[in-house]
Amino acid sequence: ELKVEQNPLFLSMQEGKNYTIYCNYSTTSDRLYWYRQDPGKSLESLFVLLSNGAVKQEGRLMASLDTKARLSTLHITAAVHDLSATYFCAGGNTDKLIFGTGTRLQVFP
Amino acid sequence: DAGITQSPRYKITETGRQVTLMCHQTWSHSYMFWYRQDLGHGLRLIYYSAAADITDKGEVPDGYVVSRSKTENFPLTLESATRSQTSVYFCASSESGRREAFFGQGTRLTVV
User: Fold this and answer.
1) Which of A17, B70, B92, B100 could be joined to A45 by an S-S link, Cβ 3.0–4.6 Å?
2) In chain A, which residues have their Cβ closer than 8 Å to the Cβ of B48?
């Protein structure tokens, strides 16, 4: 059974700093997703990673996938307040889509 | 409206009552999912469906029933609601198993 774990669960960052959120999964996952959720809102797709070594970037966010290590990372560069949200990774195994517990990110001045 | 819609957005029900949460998508996506979101647990998969008339259990299926007679609809029924089923429920759909899922706005269910 696929299990997805994220760390840290909570991250408080100063504006302008860099940090990485880690997503580990327990068994083979042939795809990895990152989502963003603002408070009280739905989930918004950020990245879809489909192969080992895949790297995708959008603005200050960059996601990568290492299938051998069963690890995906979401790197934040020069954080700004607008990035404050909860970030989820999700792994795909057969037809299921299994989510991690999320990382709540707060960016302060 | 195009997209994926859930109804109702908010629901209060009593313990022991049956309640159905509706999910409708206009994209003709094959895959549909139901999740519940609780503090400290992230999103947990309740049931999913790969096509009409094909459904399967997720991580936390107990106490829930689903059906999918039409591609566009995927209702979730709580047969006898319990307080532990108080949660925010999200429906999602995906074009294929390797594409991202798109989420509805969620239904906040309170069982008193």
Assistant:
1) B100
2) 95-97
